């Protein structure tokens, strides 16, 4: 298991979802991906994308205007 | 082993827009035992999702990407593909021309079906055919009886393209001929009447769905198309970057002179959004009162910037005062504060509004 980070600041949905999707395609089962975003739409869209693809959002934080979602990859 | 173990599970890719028709088309095929996965293309002009994040008044609305929501309701995977760069050629050079505005709907549909066909993933994962929610007569430009074979042919999908909602009005396709799907359980919808779709949704137990009045693309919008035409005309070049087309969705656009344009925020959410561009554009802010932020797009001179500050001040809370302090920040220069007299509304002609 390894931990990875993705900077999706300034991107508006669905771009953060697309970047998350493409990054997760490169990761292994059990890996963690921390995605940092500024579009509040990700709070809905990334968990929705994770649910339909079987991944798990294990943590969500909002700090100032940034949203940080941590995803556990399931393959 | 059961006797059915040798029967191959047929698979289809469905173009999911987030609207009702693609949702129904997918569901109808799933009901026939086909494994379906969705695909959604992000062109940069999609109305879905991203623009809701900009305006503060829209922040109160539920932020939902309808394509993702539809996929979740249907219980299918959805693959979202960034086609921003490739899509430029569709917008700039549509072989079949534009619709009422800058919408190249027929070329767009051909492009998207072709992308699904050409997508290596589909072949690698052994998918057999493609589904769209098209209905003959639904759209004046792209969804006509005459355009259906054009889309199938020019996309390269040929008879692997199934339109479940109007299949009975079209020749048999490969999945029908091979018996993967039963043609009798498909539909013969046509025209702009939405009642058949609404009745079908009800019969399938679909109670909630999205039906955007203006379609799913900003290029069908008259005002947006005019801004895009203005952008090309002012630059003398028919091209764009993602930031260009995003900024066309934000603020009021005024062009006091041919060589520069002002993008003036209308509320707090747009103020924050424009702030994100402060390192690429000259930014004018209202300092002494509440008021908008504005970007200067073009090659404005010092004199132009002073005048632009007066224009921006007109939209702030100090519009009726004698002087307002404004800041002007050019990307490679120090911040400059100036005191200006707000331009009276009578001196802002309608022709400046893009």
Provide a brief overview of the structure:
With 75 residues, chain A is an alpha+beta fold. Chain A has helices spanning 15-24, 42-53, and strands at residues 3-8, 32-37, 56-63, 66-72.
Helix content of chain B: 25-40%
CATH class of the largest domain in chain B: Alpha Beta
CATH architecture of the largest domain in chain B: 3-Layer(aba) Sandwich
The number of domains of chain A: 1
The number of distinct structural domains of chain B comes to 2
Strand arrangement in the largest pleated sheet of chain A:
1-2-4-3
Strand order of the largest sheet of chain B: 6-7-9-8-10-11
Give a quick account of the main beta sheet of chain B: strands, pairing sense, barrel closure.
6 strands, antiparallel
Largest interface, and how many residues on either side?
A-B, 20 and 31 residues
Helical fraction of chain A = 25-40%
Counting DSSP E segments of at least 2 residues, the number of strands of chain B comes to 11
Tell me how many strands of chain A there are. 4
Major beta sheet of chain A, specifics? Answer: 4 strands, mixed
CATH topology of chain A: Translation Initiation Factor IF3
């Amino acid at each position: 298991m390894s931990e990875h980070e993705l900077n999706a600041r300034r991107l508006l949905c669905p771009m953060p979802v697309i970047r998350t999707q493409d990054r997760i395609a490169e990761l292994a089962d059990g890996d963690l991906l921390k995605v940092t975003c500024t579009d509040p739409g990700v709070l809905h869209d990334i968990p929705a994308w994770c649910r339909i693809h079987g991944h798990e959002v294990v943590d969500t934080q909002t700090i100032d205007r940034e949203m940080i979602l941590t995803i556990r990859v399931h393959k | 082993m059961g006797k059915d173990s040798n029967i191959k599970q047929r698979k289809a890719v469905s173009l999911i827009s987030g609207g009702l028709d693609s949702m129904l088309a997918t569901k109808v095929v799933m009901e026939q035992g086909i494994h379906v996965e969705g695909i959604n293309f992000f062109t940069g002009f999609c109305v879905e999702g991203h623009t809701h994040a900009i305006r503060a008044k829209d922040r109160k609305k539920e932020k939902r990407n309808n394509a993702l929501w539809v996929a979740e309701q249907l219980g299918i995977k959805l693959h979202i593909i960034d086609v921003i760069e490739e899509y430029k050629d569709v917008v700039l050079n549509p072989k079949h021309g534009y619709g009422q505005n800058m919408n190249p709907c027929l070329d767009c549909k051909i492009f998207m079906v072709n992308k699904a066909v050409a997508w290596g993933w589909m072949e690698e994962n052994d998918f057999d055919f493609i589904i769209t929610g098209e209905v003959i007569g639904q759209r004046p430009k792209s969804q006509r009886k005459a355009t259906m074979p054009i889309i199938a042919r020019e996309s390269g999908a040929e008879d692997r393209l199934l339109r479940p909602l109007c299949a009975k009005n079209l020749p048999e396709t490969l999945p029908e001929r091979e018996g993967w799907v039963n043609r009798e359980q498909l539909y013969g919808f046509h025209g702009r009447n939405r009642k058949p779709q609404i009745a079908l949704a009800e019969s399938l137990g679909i109670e909630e769905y999205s039906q955007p009045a203006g379609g799913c693309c900003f290029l069908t919008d008259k005002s947006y198309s005019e801004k895009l035409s203005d952008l090309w005309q002012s630059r003398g070049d028919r091209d764009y970057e993602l930031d260009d087309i995003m900024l066309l969705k934000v603020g009021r656009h005024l062009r006091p002179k041919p060589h520069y344009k002002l993008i003036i925020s209308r509320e707090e959410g747009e103020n924050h959004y424009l702030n994100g561009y402060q390192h690429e554009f000259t930014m004018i802010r209202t300092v002494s009162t509440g008021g908008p932020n504005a970007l200067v797009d073009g090659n404005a001179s010092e004199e132009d910037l002073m005048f632009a500050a007066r224009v921006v001040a007109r939209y702030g809370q100090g519009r009726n005062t004698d002087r307002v302090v404004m800041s002007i920040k050019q990307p490679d220069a120090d911040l400059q504060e100036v005191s200006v007299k707000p331009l009276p509304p009578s001196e802002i002609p309608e022709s400046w509004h893009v």
